[in-house]
Amino acid sequence: MAVMTREILISALEKTYGKKGMARKDVEELCDFVLSFFGYEDYVLDNVLSAPERDVFYNLEEFGFLETFREEVNIMKGRSWRVNQWKFKKDNIYRIANSQEEEKREENIYDEIFRELEN
Q: How many CB atoms lie within 10 A of CB 43?
């Protein structure tokens, strides 16, 4: 897949965090914050994150933007080294960014009342 672009990520963040009340400026700052760790890569090492930064990543994981995975690498003398990483869930991000919001038609409450009276 292609590199995650700012436009795609902002679109997906707006359709999730924006619906929860986050302002456009804050969505853009969140996008820039996330992209500053990933750059042109699809993953970032967990040990470069501070505790507050990791909390943001866990929140993004809850919304389906990121996922964690662990890799074990054998080093000298048979010992293993665990590497924890964060990875974009690109399929999910592209799906959210490209989703069309369904407009719900507002129904007049009085129409519903009169329909019930007719029956």
A: 17
Domain 6-101 grouped into CATH 1.10.150: no
CA angle, residues 7, 22, 58, in degrees to nearest 5: 80
The one-letter code for the residue type at 54 is R
Please state whether 116 falls in left (phi above 0), alpha (psi between -120 and 50) or beta. Answer: alpha
Residue spans of the domains in the chain: they are 6-101
Q: How far apart are CA 38 and CA 58, in angstroms?
A: 15
Lookup result for tokens 């964690």: 68
The per-residue pLDDT for range 83-113, each reduced to its tens digit, is 999 999 999 999 999 987 654 455 566 666 6
